[in-house]
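#struct-help
A.M.: can someone run this one for me? Single chain, 122 residues.
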Amino acid sequence: MFAVVAVGATVGFQGEARAGSQCGKASWYGSGSRTANGERMNAGALAAAHRTLPFGTQVRVENLGNGRAVVVRINDRGPFVSGRVIDVTRGAAARLGMIGSGVARVKVTVVGGSGHLSGNCS
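D.P.: on it. Structure tokens below:
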């Protein structure tokens, strides 16, 4: 029996192909008039900014401190602060339980779209 895995993908324990994951700090933002892809900023939307993922990519963001997770769509560029891997909207931050702290350690995993994250989270 043979399994086919896409080039560049990693194979999980269940045998599914995944587009990698990335761990680091996330912060949230809730202001601005336009996002980098030209959309009007909506602080309540489940959206996020990432430095390299294509616009429209869907990622699962898991707060490693409390286990809460949310799926967001990449529609902006950032974060521009060293050590951070993603900026989520205020709406996503509320679901992740990180409004008060402002920053949380997260795991980001691509779940939809053509984006790929190289990295490994332990």
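A.M.: thanks! Residues 90-96 form the longest helix (7 residues).
D.P.: also worth noting: Confidence is low (pLDDT under 50) at residues 1-18.
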